[in-house]
Amino acid sequence: MNPAEFEGREQRITFQLYNYWFGLADDCGIPPLKALSPGDISPYKNNMVLMDLRDPDDEPTLQVIGQLLSDDLDQDLTLKGISEIPRRSLLSRITDHYMEVLANKAPISFDAEFKNKAREKILYRGILLPFSDDGENINFILGAIRWISEEEALTAKEGKDEEDISPLDNDSDALLLQETLQACRKLVHGQSPTDQRSRRSLYETLGAVLDFYILCAAHPSSYQQLLEAEGLKAQKRAPFTPILKLCFGRDYDKTRITEYAAALSYAIKNDKNGADLPDFLDQFPGGIKGCVLAERNSRSGPENAHGPDYSILDKMDPVARFNVDKEDDDQNKFCLLLGRRNGPQMDVLKILDQDRTALNKILTKIAKEQ
Hints:
Layout: H1 13-25, H2 38-41, E1 48-52, E2 61-65, H3 67-71, H4 90-95, H5 98-104, E3 108-115, E4 121-132, E5 138-149, H6 150-155, H7 160-165, H8 171-188, H9 199-218, H10 220-229, H11 240-248, H12 254-269, H13 277-283, H14 287-299, H15 311-315, E6 337-342, E7 345-351, H16 356-369
Antiparallel strand pairs: 1-2, 1-5, 3-4, 4-5, 6-7
Helix pairs in contact: 1-8, 8-9, 8-10, 9-13, 11-12, 12-14, 14-16
């Protein structure tokens, strides 16, 4: 989708262009400039500048300068070095940030105010997008900026113009959510219903998703815009479902989404954050499925609001102890045994294959009885 297609759903220039850039990047890290289509960015061309960084021994040069930015200058700076840009120009507001892009090797957004050469206070917001021929070394930086004078901002009427160009909105929040979402998606990448990755890796991924949920809750307006841009809706009764769909994909296995959502919900009820989650799931009887059962129990009535105290199981003294031939590859803490009474003795016949549903019911029953 080109950025113009976000019109009506997301009016902020940084959000539009960041989504477009990320689509170009795909899995290659930093996209090449040739991947950019002039037609896709045509709605913003008058507000843009393209910086050329191909010469490592010289300062960046201005390859293309948008008409509105050029009109703000007293001279033609095309192909000139950035050191020639006048300090009180809009163009300087963009190029001042290019070193941040080189340091982070990622897009950066910015918004602030300054006084132009006419001593007017100007409010602005913008974004810088890196491009690379080899996916590593930055050769070009594309910058875009939108601005309004303070006087115009104060007298603007309600409606599209006011919402579209006020820089004192949550542009930075929106970009932060986008960057965090992409980090979560990178962790998710490769996760399949066959669980090819380790359980610990999945727990760490869900920890990142939980932190993303907490971040979204702190920025509800930007989160709502993100959901709308992705074609999703917030769900009051299932708040984790849209978060998980954002991270794992809308077509991800629905049963797993439901299980993950229940586990995250139960973790929140136990005051856990993303950093706590891997150990919490690791130590919780039954792992994710154990949390699912505990979450369901907590919803069944006030008396079960906090669920049973599963830590009691860890404190129980064993009635017997013996070695087995091999360790459990899945690192399950609890298991089912088939036993046979032989007078005062007990013969253990077999360690049964894991039946999570049966095991979780037994563990919950024992925990409640203690």
